[in-house]
Amino acid sequence: MTADADIVVVGAGPGGFSAALKAQRTGSSVTLIEKYDMPGGVHTSGLQGSANTGVGGIHTELMEKFLAAGCIYTATEKTHSDWAGNPLSHYEKNLEPDAKFIRSSFDPSGAGHVMATMLEEAGVQVMYRSTLVDVDLNEGGKNSSIDRVIVENASGQTAIKGKIFIDGTGTAELAARSGAPFVRGGGPQPETADWDGECRPIPGGLLWIMSGIDFAKVAAYQKSAKDPLLSKLIEQARSAGDIPPDLYRPRMSGSGVYGDYYIGHPTLDLSPIQADGTYILWQNVPYEWELHMDDTAEDEARADEVLRSFVEVEAQFLKKYVPGFEESYITNIGRFVGVRDGRHPIGEYVFSIEDAISGKSFSDAVTAPMTKTFYWDGFKSYSFEIPFRCFLPKTIDNLILTGASLSFTYETIFMVMRNFPWCTQTGEIAGYAAALSIEQNISPKKLEWKTPYF
Ligand SMILES: Cc1cc2nc3c(=O)[nH]c(=O)nc-3n(C[C@H](O)[C@H](O)[C@H](O)COP(=O)(O)OP(=O)(O)OC[C@H]3O[C@@H](n4cnc5c(N)ncnc54)[C@H](O)[C@@H]3O)c2cc1C
Fold first, then answer.
1. Widest CA span of the chain, in angstroms?
2. Mean pLDDT throughout 277-286?
3. Dihedral angle of Cα 156, 24, 11, 259, to the nearest 10 degrees
4. Hey, which residues does 9 pair with through a beta bridge?
5. What is the mean pLDDT of residues 33-57?
């Protein structure tokens, strides 16, 4: 056994990071286990790097620290005059041309370093390059509890004991390995003409970064050639055998919740990051392939292989065919293909889309009503509270969920709660709840939650 802490957090994404930090700052001893070499999860190791205005608590602290460390890059209509309404823009494509916008991003490596320093300063014991592989349970009563988790790292397999455990894996891996109930990713899907009625997970994605791009030149080409989607260049490259059919796939759209955001990828898809001339690009798993990268090694390997090959082919296509990319080069590729729709644990309460729409009140609300825009639903805004029971998986007494692993139905977790600000907030709540449980020497399921935290 290499560690024995009050609280053991598995996964150091936005959820696990802020849970560990809050619990340690509240007086508990915390061990944080992370597979990769820095905290931040999809947003650092996975390169997502989406910066937002602070929403309070650790999220605001993070945004301020990233800014002070020079990690934030902000694009506006002044720096990117042809960006608003441009169909190549991942986020701003639906704006009116010349509309005002602010697109802030953080440098993934710099931000990961800031987060690592914060954990170190707080005194959290972090085990990087350590992967959760198993769980030992105390069984016997109606419910079970986790006794220790087994992790694999350079020392081989070691056990880490704790009183309270927090699942910050982003795919509910700790909950699943503990035997807590969950549903796999894959909800109702768009009803297109060729839809076969099957439910598939929202596709995962690999993010990568290119520098040396002259976007003004790209935009000038789009206008002069009347080729806003670069379709003419894509066709030319396809005829020459320079790109495979799956690289730029037609979008699927319909009445389903995912709209046209991730299902299909008909053209270049990018967003400014880090510095002038540098952009992040997306490659999504073909939706039809129905890959479950969170629980199937073959699917994970297939996604890695195909998306890396798409990155290579796309980079060569852009350099050879698209004006403005002549001097471009790849500067970074995500460490993994990010999972958008992993396991969804069944908690003491499962938050549904009806709860969000009706603005249901909960006696154990951890947040005051929050207003959020559901962009799959015509960009309507709903105001809703979140009950603490969504943090508590059924059947395990000393486990708390957080981030993308909360007990939410897929539409609610996917469209709203999995974003960086809210994962940081729910992580902070999970860490606070764990520390209170230690202080009061009770199971998190016995905590009385009377006042919203945020
Ligand atoms: C392709 C993609 C694009 C996205 N785009 C956006 C966006 O534009 N804006 C936005 O706000 N959000 C976006 N998201 C969503 C957001 O990134 C995630 O929902 C959020 O990062 C979830 O936070 P988390 O802390 O729950 O998990 P994650 O960020 O997934 O972090 C989980 C951490 O746990 C670690 N881990 C996992 N398993 C183990 C294990 N067995 N042992 C040890 N460690 C483990 C991982 O290495 C990782 O560091 C995107 C997600 C994806 C996949």
1. 72
2. 94
3. 180
4. 32, 166
5. 95
Atom of ligand 1 nearest to the CA of 16: 25
How far is the C-alpha of 24 from the C-alpha of 271, rounded, in Å? 36
Decide: helix, strand or coil at residue 418: coil
- How far is the C-alpha of 248 from the C-alpha of 315, rounded, in Å? 13
Q: Which atom of ligand 1 is nearest to the CA of 42?
A: 29
Q: Could you report the per-residue pLDDT of 373-424, keeping only the tens digit for each?
A: 776 566 778 889 999 999 999 999 999 999 999 999 877 776 677 889 999 9
Q: 345 CB under 6 A from ligand 1? A: no
**Amino acid occupying residue 396:** I
Residue nearest to atom 34 of ligand 1 (CA): 11
Mean pLDDT of the chain: 92
Q: 232, 248, 215: which is closest to 326 by C-alpha?
A: 215
CB of 190 closer than 6 angstroms to any ligand 1 atom: no
Residue ID of nearest Cα to ligand 1 atom 13: 419
> How many residues can be counted in the chain?
454
Atom 15 (ligand 1) nearest CA: 419
Other CB atoms within a 10 A radius of the CB of residue 383 amount to 11
Evaluate whether 351 touches 218 at the Cβ level (below 8 Å): no
Q: Is residue 57 within 6 Å of ligand 1 at its C-beta?
A: no
Distances (CA, A) of 192 to 25, 124, 197, 246, 449: 50, 49, 9, 18, 44
Q: Residue 30 forms beta bridges with which residues?
A: 7
Q: Which of 137-146, 231-240, 257-266 has the lowest mean pLDDT?
A: 257-266
Backbone phi, psi, residue 375, to 5°: -75, -15
User: Ligand 1: which atom is nearest the Cα of residue 36?
Assistant: 47
pTM score above 0.85: yes
Q: What pLDDT is stored for residue 375 in this prediction?
A: 62
Domains of the chain: 3-71+109-184+343-446 (3.50.50.60), 195-333 (3.30.70)
Least confident of 8-22, 177-191, 414-428: 177-191
Helix (H) or strand (E) holding 223: helix 215-224
